[in-house]
């Protein structure tokens, strides 16, 4: 922009009157009226229709009494409109405008081009799709010497548009801008909505002809231009005021702002929301010309005023050549500030003066009194309500119309609505509780590997289908929150609105709003529920009704609409609040009613940050999440939290505010007002019908769920809560959306896939592989280097991540163990980015966004910053490191292009890569990036990321890489840019098929992150953010790092296995080379799915073959090189001059030369050569002295090496020319621009003059002296030193965590400008500091020419000496309190803790590091000496309970709890949850969790061999968590407390089920079937129920009272037990089959394995089970002769090991055996896991069970003889057994790898024996029932059922337990019984309310 401030008005006008006169009068004989009495403009038309269109335009002009004259330019027409005699200038101007608007609205027809560039009495727009050079040639006017103008506004853009067009070039009718308006969609929607309330006395009815104010399909600048013009032409605003309204300053928190100005902003905020985004906006109406910078100042804007009265402003210096002595002033626009030139008055008006003028133009301060707040409403209610937030308002637990929910259903908190609204346990535990207790959202890590909502089978809410968009190349930080009438006529009416502190309302607030009549306001409540009886088809009519009712209420004059789902309950189903809002918001906009009402949501559904964001983004004004508050109330009454109402509300709101701010910041939006309705989301998997009705304008690329699908799922959720049949739900449902859990949502990283990746186990293909960016900092150095070595070995690339890399990793590496990362990342933090780091890279990757938290900054907490990390990152160990939000340094594609160029200069041999995140529009961004000369682009998916982030970030930002890759590939091909770019896909890619799909969709290369980590041992604990990774990968804890066992070979093997799989797949589609695969979408098709939901997805857009869109284009990525033009760079000349120095022939070189602003990145390539040769050390100081004169281009001295006198070691001195005029104040003039010294790592800089915004951001080592800085100085600084001898801007030192700033503060304003959150201000008084500062000042003085301007420094020195005027800023020292390690005492004598005890234990117990601190308690039995003398249970109950919480503290609550996996607990017991609850002393809830999956924990807690413990993650390198004891204690405690009571079902179905067998499977099945309401009869052939539990397991392991207690309970619940009935013998199985609706066989495997060897018939040889059963019966008091079957005084030999063998030992011992020996045929197991027995399989290791220990105590030796084969029983001569002859065997593997047993010669031995017990297992069920029912059997003689099913070959007959699956564990039998019951229930009722394995209830509605 430029303008001339001299001359007479007539001679300087923007329309070049002289030229026009010459051309028109001279050339065409057309006379031209006086300026102002005609309008001219340029139209874009098309060849075919232009005449027709021109005629139509003439007609339209005639209607306005205007006459058009026309020139002869084909297709582009310049028209002239003359003013009629009878109207004044102003009226003429308006008519011309109306004429143009109407023409634009009416004349555009399909296929017919019509666009008016401008039509104005004062300005003319020349624009086109032209390069800057072409422009001047194309528009001959501009080259004509007669063309003159007093001002010009020029805009050229770096076109990122996919298909740029003439029309979409900048509008320039009133404005041009450099940047982005991120809130556009909302602004445009709201403008449309305002049309309903706008009125204009001036335009009257004609106003509607101007609608839509913003024409459709405009670019963002086009839309801004329309609105701005409208405010000026119809809204009574001057151009500067209209600009102030649309682009306000950050006024809300600026205490320094003039109050009148603030009042103006406050008033104008009521009229219109800001058009927000990073932008420098320039504007002119022909008289005024000016510019304004966005509130965050994210764009540079520099201006000069010259002595010859010219003002030039541009986004950089040097665009206008003038002699330095001609310059009067050099300045820059500050954030939110405006510069205005009035060309008529020839005045430059400064911001403050101008804005005050405007602020005082109306009584704004008075008008804003009309605003009111919640306090006013409360006051109006005169004390009948308090303003204290309430958590209940009479609706607790959904008591609606007398319907009480609490306590009826055994759900968490007893509230049925939780399930209906989709609450899960994770919602409470992982999201809400952290929010209300810590005021923050909880963090997660390791990305999102759960399915998208459109693939989930667990009824996700619609919010989950929306993904947050974020700015890929713009991301300003934002200021905190704050939260219509006719805007055309400014008045107090605009303020007649309620001002809310934030958008979240308490229950009380809402009640007040509903009841208010304050100032005539009234509220209308729209019920957004509908009758359940209407079924799924009721949804759409309900939406229509909601929209229509809302519209009527608006028309009827209500001011507030409350959309309420309060009535949701058993009879009424809530419409999803988001859909209800969306449909209402859009309907009201269409009907032009939206601005008349505020919309408040009263919803039980929304509770999470993401959900609130979506609601706000689709137009909600405020939200009352009532169910959150009510649930917290319930949790408090249950003792889970202890907070008061006020705290709960405050904490939740504050966490919500932070969360929402973060999401807004990702998009670069600063105010909530602008975010509202901005619709910054992309939908994944939603059909067009829903989008069109509720979310108009939202991208949804793959179609998906319909209204019917969502209605079905809502009904399913409703059925879970209010279904006719009670669900078997003890706890709130938890399908595991965040952490994997058994039976729940699928996760890519489930235990099976993790275990598969960890088994041990194509060279061109692997070269296409790279590891994703994981910083050394986020993972341990061991893990990081292992990855690098592996990737180097296979010729692939590893990535440093953003943490830098120590020089010792890239210099002189052994090729076999090369730790150098080929890809070096450059992120916004610039951690460790030195010249040497850059010089030693193959790829330099700019991180624009990241997988873990797209759009957010990162933070490495102090406890993770070890010495190594601090050194690498140039900071201090123990001090946290904050990365600025990504792209803090990059605000536009131009900035990105600059960084690409800088990096290329910093390493001309490296490939420059840019990492983007998948989202809609990434293709366009990628095109821009390609045009910006990137050579490589990584598209990262939403699911990747290893770092920590808030769950909102992990779950709701970014999209699948598949969408991003296909869009990017297609867009690059369409733009013929594909050949310049190598494209990489990244994000949870793990198998060959993923690689192939990535290739087919367009990827050349593949990045891996999570998979290699898993291969190295990661178990997806998701604890990276806690620094407690138990396998030493994502931790910096030296103790844990020692546990790292990963090897490069693991990764190498994995990559080759993957490559082999890729090869096979390539061969299967006939492709030889990977390149041939790229983009071949024709080879890919969507698989048919069994899920109707999945089948709704439409992949056509993704599967478009880009080559069909633009045939013949080169798509070989990287085959065309980007041209950086480095050969002509000034550095090449310098390099020639310094060659002698680099050759070592001289020590110093001085170069004198000039520079101009086209020389960018000066000194950077020179530094590359120095760094390559001399490494980090560089050259000795001042080796190369370069003296430059002129204005340098951008990135001057970026990454400068040491020894060169910008910055990574060099020295830069910048000062103005020496012969400055006397009145030139350097401290008031800008000498260096924005973002100077960003991320500098070392070196020094001296600037004589001011630096603009963001000086020294992320400086980690440079020393700088400057005379003043703009806003955001020293932000995020981590090291180095800055001396500022003048003014500073606002927000100084925000996020600063290291280094020192010395600031001269003569005006005492600095404390207010400094952000003191992380720093403290100290006076400069320490002598060391004084000496240091003085030395710096002297250097500054010397280097910049102090004789020219010495006084300031002298004054500074004087002041410093007086120790008064300066303050010193040092980052707050981290207070590290060294506390002694707590001693853990077993003080927990009883589990019934008092509150005090609870608090005390919480203090001393550490759950986070419990697994490191506390050892596993191993002594769980009573002493062996004592216990062998009685038959009581062997457990030491007291001791176990005492240490229980310590043991529970060892559980890490794993993200993927292997204890629940298929190798772990067969029931899927929710172990981490109950462990956590026990740790927190919440026994009752722990019980609920336990009973959700396990019917009989009192059995499993005693007899289970605990495979869960074998699979526990802790077991990888420690002793596992003590799970079984905790389980047993929970249930025993529950019985003791009387919590376990009979719970008969509420409803009986009338169906009868017979269960045969009362062992664990039979009992579990009966229990479940009874819960489902069926009448169950259990048949047991013995005299007591319990089967094996009763008679097979001895009392010392399982007391029979425990068994009987359960059986009695079951009887009380209505189950019938028929004992002494041997089905198949006493009664016929067929009769049962007929009599009952279903027959379930749980017969067990009772057919014992025999030992048919010589003398088997001898007396004294018995099956173990007979022995145990006889004794049990005897103990139970049965009349039975046990004398032949007792071990008393006998030599006992037990053949066979296992639990039964051990029970025989324990029983024999107690009976008084003389000796006990057991034979085991297998060899003694090893003490630790063998190679063939890896974790998490059941550990086959040597264990000493209770019996073995007891024998050892009594007889002095372990009874087990291993590798012993029994050959023969020996006869005592009377037919009784007298001994056993046995041999030792040896086990070897044959050629095929099978184990083979050989007898060892000469090893024969005879063992004495009176009693031999055969404990060799069982062969299957007994046959009589099987035979009677003629059932199919499998080859192992078990009852045959289809895979994973329980139904047999016989109608109505089912089988479960050992009779079906073979001999197994009690816990497996219980699981079989539970799952068989679910199948029987489904068979009987068509659907089941019983849970799946893992306890998850899944209801699927029929039809
Ligand atoms: S039932 Fe067995 S496997 Fe399951 S948690 Fe309990 S002890 Fe572990
Ligand atoms: S018991 Fe072990 S595997 Fe299970 S959650 Fe706890 S630490 Fe993880």
Automatic annotation (TrEMBL):
Record-listed E.C. numbers: 1.4.1.14
Keywords (A to Z) from UniProt: 3Fe-4S, Amino-acid biosynthesis, FAD, Flavoprotein, FMN, Glutamate biosynthesis, Glutamine amidotransferase, Iron, Iron-sulfur, Metal-binding, Oxidoreductase
Single GO term (MF): oxidoreductase activity, acting on the CH-NH2 group of donors, NAD or NADP as acceptor
GO BP terms, alphabetized: L-glutamate biosynthetic process
GN (gene name): Glsn-L
Family matches, as Pfam families: Fer4_20 (PF14691), GATase_2 (PF00310), Glu_syn_central (PF04898), Glu_synthase (PF01645), GXGXG (PF01493), Pyr_redox_2 (PF07992)
Domain of life from the UniProt record: Eukaryota
Protein name: glutamate synthase (NADH)
Catalysed reaction equations from the record: 2 L-glutamate + NAD(+) = L-glutamine + 2-oxoglutarate + NADH + H(+)
Record-stated family: Belongs to the glutamate synthase family.
Domain Glutamine amidotransferase type-2: 3-344
Cofactor requirements of the protein: FAD; FMN; [3Fe-4S] cluster
Annotated pathway: Amino-acid biosynthesis; L-glutamate biosynthesis via GLT pathway; L-glutamate from 2-oxoglutarate and L-glutamine (NAD(+) route): step 1/1; Nitrogen metabolism; Energy metabolism; nitrogen metabolism
Organism taxonomic ancestry: Eukaryota, Metazoa, Ecdysozoa, Arthropoda, Crustacea
PANTHER family documented for this protein: GLUTAMATE SYNTHASE [NADPH] SMALL CHAIN (PTHR43100)
């Amino acid at each position: 922009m430029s303008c001339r401030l001299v001359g007479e008005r007539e001679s300087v006008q923007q329309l070049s009157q002289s030229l026009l006169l010459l051309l028109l009068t001279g050339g065409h004989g057309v006379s031209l009226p006086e300026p102002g009495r005609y309008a001219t403009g340029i139209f874009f038309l098309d060849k075919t229709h232009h005449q027709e269109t021109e005629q139509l335009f003439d007609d339209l002009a005639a209607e306005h009494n205007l006459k058009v004259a026309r020139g002869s330019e084909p297709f582009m027409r310049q028209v002239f409109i003359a003013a009629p005699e009878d109207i004044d200038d102003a009226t003429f101007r308006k008519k011309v405008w109306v004429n143009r608007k109407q023409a634009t609205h009416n004349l555009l027809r399909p296929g017919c081009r019509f666009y008016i560039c401008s039509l104005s009495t004062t300005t003319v727009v020349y624009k086109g799709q032209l390069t800057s050079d072409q422009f001047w040639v194309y528009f001959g006017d501009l080259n004509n010497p007669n063309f003159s103008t007093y001002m010009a506004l020029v805009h050229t853009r770096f076109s990122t548009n996919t298909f740029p067009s003439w029309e979409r070039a900048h509008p320039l009718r009133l404005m041009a801008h450099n940047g982005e308006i991120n809130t556009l969609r909302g602004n445009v929607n709201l403008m449309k909505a305002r049309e309903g309330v706008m009125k204009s006395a001036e335009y009257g009815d004609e106003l509607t002809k101007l609608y839509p104010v913003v024409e459709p399909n405009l670019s963002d600048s086009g839309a801004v231009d329309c609105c701005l013009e409208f405010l000026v032409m119809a809204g009574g605003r001057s151009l500067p005021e209209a600009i102030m309204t649309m682009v306000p300053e950050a006024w809300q928190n600026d205490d320094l702002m003039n109050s009148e100005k603030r009042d103006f902003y406050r008033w104008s905020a009521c009229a219109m929301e800001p058009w927000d985004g990073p932008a420098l906006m320039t504007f002119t109406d022909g008289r005024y010309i000016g510019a304004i910078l966005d509130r965050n100042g994210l764009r540079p804007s520099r201006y000069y005023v010259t002595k010859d009265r010219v003002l030039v402003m541009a986004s950089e210096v040097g665009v206008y050549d003038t002699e330095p002595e001609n310059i009067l002033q050099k300045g820059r626009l500050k954030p939110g500030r405006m510069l205005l030139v009035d060309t008529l008055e020839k005045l430059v008006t400064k911001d403050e003066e101008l804005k005050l003028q405007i602020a005082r133009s109306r009584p704004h301060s008075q008008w804003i009194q009309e605003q009111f707040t919640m306090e006013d409403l409360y006051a109006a209610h005169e004390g009948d309500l308090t303003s204290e937030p309430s958590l209940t308002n009479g609706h607790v637990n959904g008591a609606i119309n007398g319907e009480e929910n609490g306590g009826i259903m055994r759900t968490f908190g007893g509230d049925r609505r939780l399930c209906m609204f989709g609450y899960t346990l994770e919602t409470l535990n992982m999201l809400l509780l952290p929010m209300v207790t810590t005021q923050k959202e909880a963090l997660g890590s390791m990305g999102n590997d759960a399915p998208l909502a459109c693939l989930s089978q667990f009824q996700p809410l619609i919010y989950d289908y929306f993904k947050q968009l974020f700015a890929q190349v713009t991301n300003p930080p934002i200021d905190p929150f704050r939260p219509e009438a006719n805007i055309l006529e400014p008045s107090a009416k605009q303020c007649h609105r309620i001002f809310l502190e934030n958008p979240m309302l308490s229950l009380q607030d809402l009640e007040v709003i509903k009841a208010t009549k304050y100032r005539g306001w009234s509220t209308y409540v729209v019920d957004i529920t509908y009758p359940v009886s209407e079924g799924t088809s009721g949804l759409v009519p309900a939406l229509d009704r909601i929209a229509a009712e809302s519209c009527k209420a608006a028309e009827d004059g209500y001011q507030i609409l409350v959309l309420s789902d309060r009535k949701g309950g058993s009879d009424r189903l809530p419409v999803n609040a988001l859909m209800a809002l969306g449909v209402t918001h859009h309907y009201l906009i269409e009907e032009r009613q939206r601005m008349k009402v505020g919309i408040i949501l009263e919803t039980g559904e929304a509770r999470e940050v993401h959900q609130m964001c979506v609601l706000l983004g689709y137009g909600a004004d405020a939200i009352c999440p009532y169910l959150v508050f009510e649930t917290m109330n319930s949790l408090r009454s249950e003792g889970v939290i202890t907070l008061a109402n006020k705290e709960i509300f405050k904490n939740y709101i504050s966490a919500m505010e932070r969360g929402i701010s973060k999401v807004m910041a990702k998009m670069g939006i600063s105010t909530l007002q602008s975010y509202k309705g901005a619709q910054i989301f992309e939908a994944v998997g939603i059909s067009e019908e829903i989008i069109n009705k509720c979310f108009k304008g939202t991208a949804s690329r793959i179609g998906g769920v319909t209204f019917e699908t969502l209605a079905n799922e809502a009904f399913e959720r409703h059925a879970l809560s209010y279904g006719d049949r009670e669900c078997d739900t003890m706890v709130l449902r938890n399908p595991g959306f965040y952490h994997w859990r058994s039976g729940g949502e699928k996760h890519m990283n489930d235990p099976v896939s993790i275990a598969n990746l960890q088994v041990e186990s194509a060279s061109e293909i692997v070269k296409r592989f790279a590891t994703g960016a994981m910083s050394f900092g986020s993972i341990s150095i061991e893990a990081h280097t292992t990855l690098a070595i592996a990737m180097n070995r296979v010729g692939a690339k590893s990535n440093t991540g953003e943490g830098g890399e120590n020089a010792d990793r890239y210099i002189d590496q052994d090729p076999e163990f090369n730790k150098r990362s080929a890809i070096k990342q450059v992120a916004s933090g610039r951690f460790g980015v030195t010249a040497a780091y850059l010089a030693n890279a193959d790829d330099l990757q700019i991180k624009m966004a990241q997988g873990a938290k797209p759009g957010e900054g990162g933070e490495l907490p102090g406890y993770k910053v070890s010495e190594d990390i601090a050194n690498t990152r140039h900071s201090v160990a123990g001090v946290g490191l904050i990365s600025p939000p990504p792209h803090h340094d990059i605000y536009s594609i131009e900035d990105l292009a600059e960084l690409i160029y800088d990096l290329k200069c910093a390493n001309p041999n490296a490939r420059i890569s840019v990492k983007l995140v998948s989202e809609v529009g990434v293709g366009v961004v990628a095109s821009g990036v390609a045009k910006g000369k990137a050579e490589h682009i990584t598209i990262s998916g939403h699911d990747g990321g290893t770092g920590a982030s808030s769950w909102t970030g992990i779950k709701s930002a970014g999209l699948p890489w598949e969408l991003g890759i296909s869009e990017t590939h297609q867009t690059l091909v369409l733009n013929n840019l594909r050949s310049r770019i190598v494209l990489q896909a990244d994000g949870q890619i793990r198998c060959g098929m993923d690689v192939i799909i990535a290739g087919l969709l367009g990827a050349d290369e593949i990045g891996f992150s999570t998979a290699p980590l898993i291969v190295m041992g990661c178990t997806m604990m998701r604890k990276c953010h806690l620094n407690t990774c138990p396998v030493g990968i994502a931790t910096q804890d030296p103790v844990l790092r020692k546990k790292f066992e990963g090897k490069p070979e693991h990764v190498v093997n994995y990559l080759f296995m993957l490559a082999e799989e890729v090869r096979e797949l390539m061969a299967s589609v006939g492709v030889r080379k990977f390149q041939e695969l790229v983009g071949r979408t024709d080879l890919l098709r969507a698989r048919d799915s069994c899920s109707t939901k999945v089948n709704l997805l439409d992949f056509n857009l993704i599967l478009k073959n880009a080559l069909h869109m633009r045939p013949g284009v080169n798509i070989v990525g990287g085959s065309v090189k980007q041209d950086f033009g480095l050969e002509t760079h000034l550095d090449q000349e310098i390099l020639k001059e310094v060659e002698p120095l680099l050759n070592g022939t001289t020590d110093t070189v001085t170069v004198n030369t000039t520079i101009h602003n086209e020389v960018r990145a000066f000194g950077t390539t020179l530094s590359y050569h120095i760094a390559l040769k001399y490494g980090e050390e560089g050259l000795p100081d001042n080796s190369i002295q370069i003296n430059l004169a002129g204005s340098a281009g951008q990135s001057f001295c970026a990454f400068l090496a040491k020894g060169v006198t910008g910055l990574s070691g060099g020295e830069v001195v910048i000062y103005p020319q020496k012969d400055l005029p006397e009145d030139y104040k350097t401290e008031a003039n800008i000498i260096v621009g924005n973002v100077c010294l960003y991320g500098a790592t070392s070196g020094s800089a001296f600037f004589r003059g001011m630096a603009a915004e963001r000086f020294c951001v992320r400086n980690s080592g440079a020393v700088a002296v400057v005379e003043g800085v703009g806003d955001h100085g020293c932000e995020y600084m981590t090291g180095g030193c800055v001396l500022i001898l003048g003014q500073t801007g606002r927000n100084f030192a925000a996020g600063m965590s290291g280094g020192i700033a010395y600031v001269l503060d003569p005006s005492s304003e600095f404390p207010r400008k400094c952000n003191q959150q992380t720093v403290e201000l100290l006076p400069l008084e320490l002598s060391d500091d004084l000496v240091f500062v003085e030395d710096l000042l002297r250097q500054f003085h010397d280097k910049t020419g102090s004789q020219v301007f010495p006084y300031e420094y002298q004054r500074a020195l004087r002041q410093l000496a007086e120790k008064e005027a300066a303050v010193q800023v040092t980052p707050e020292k981290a207070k590290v309190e060294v506390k002694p390690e707590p001693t853990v005492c077993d003080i927990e004598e009883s589990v019934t803790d008092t509150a005090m005890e609870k608090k005390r234990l919480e203090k001393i117990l550490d759950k986070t590091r419990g697994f490191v601190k506390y050892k596993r308690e191993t002594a769980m039995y009573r002493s062996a000496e004592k216990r062998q003398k009685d038959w009581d249970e062997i457990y030491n109950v007291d001791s176990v309970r005492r240490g229980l919480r310590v043991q529970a503290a060892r559980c890490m609550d794993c993200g993927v709890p292997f204890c629940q996996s298929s190798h772990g607990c067969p029931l899927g017991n929710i172990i981490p949850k109950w462990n956590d609850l026990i740790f927190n002393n919440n026994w009752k809830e722990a019980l609920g969790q336990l009973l959700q999956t396990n019917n009989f924990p009192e059995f499993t807690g005693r007899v289970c061999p605990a495979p869960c413990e074998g699979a526990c993650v802790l077991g990888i390198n420690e002793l596992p968590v003590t799970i079984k004891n905790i389980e047993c204690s929970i249930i025993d405690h529950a019985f003791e407390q009387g919590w376990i009571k009979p719970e008969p079902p509420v409803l009986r179905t009338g169906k009868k089920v017979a269960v045969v067998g009362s062992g664990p499977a039979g009992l579990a099945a009966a229990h479940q079937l009874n819960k489902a309401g069926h009448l169950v009869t259990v048949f047991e052939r013995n005299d007591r129920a319990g089967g094996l539990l009763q008679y097979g397991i001895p009392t010392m392991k399982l007391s029979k009272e425990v068994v009987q207690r359960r059986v009695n309970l079951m009887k009380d619940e209505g189950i019938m037990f028929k004992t002494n009935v041997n089905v198949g013998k006493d009664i016929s199985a067929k009769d049962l089959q007929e009599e009952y609706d279903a027959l379930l066989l749980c017969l067990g495997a009772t057919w014992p394995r025999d030992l048919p060897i010589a003398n088997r018939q001898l007396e004294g040889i018995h099956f173990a089970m007979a022995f145990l059963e006889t004794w049990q019966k005897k103990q139970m008091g049965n009349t039975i002769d046990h004398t032949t079957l007792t071990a008393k005084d006998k030599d006992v030999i037990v053949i066979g090991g296992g639990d039964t063998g051990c029970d025989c030992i324990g029983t024999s011992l107690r009976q008084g055996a003389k000796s006990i020996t057991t034979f085991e045929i297998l060899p003694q197991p090893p003490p630790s896991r063998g190679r063939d027995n890896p974790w998490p399989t059941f550990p086959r290791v040597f264990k000493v069970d209770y019996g073995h220990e007891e024998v050892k105590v009594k007889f002095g030796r372990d009874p087990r003889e291993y590798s012993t084969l029994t050959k023969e029983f020996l006869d005592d001569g009377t037919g009784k057994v007298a001994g056993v002859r046995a041999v030792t065997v040896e086990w070897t593997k044959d050629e095929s790898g099978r184990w083979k047993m050989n007898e060892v010669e000469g090893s024969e031995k005879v063992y004495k024996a009176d009693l031999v017990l055969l404990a060799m297992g069982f062969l299957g069920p007994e046959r009589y029932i099987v035979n009677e029912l003629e059932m199919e059997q499998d080859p192992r003689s078990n009852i045959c059922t289809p895979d994973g099913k329980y139904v047999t070959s016989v109608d109505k007959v089912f089988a479960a337990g050992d009779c079906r699956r073979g001999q197994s564990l009690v816990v497996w039998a219980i699981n079989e019984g539970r799952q068989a019951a679910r199948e029987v229930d489904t068979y009987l009722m068509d659907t089941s309310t019983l849970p799946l394995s893992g306890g998850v209830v899944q209801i699927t509605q029929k039809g």
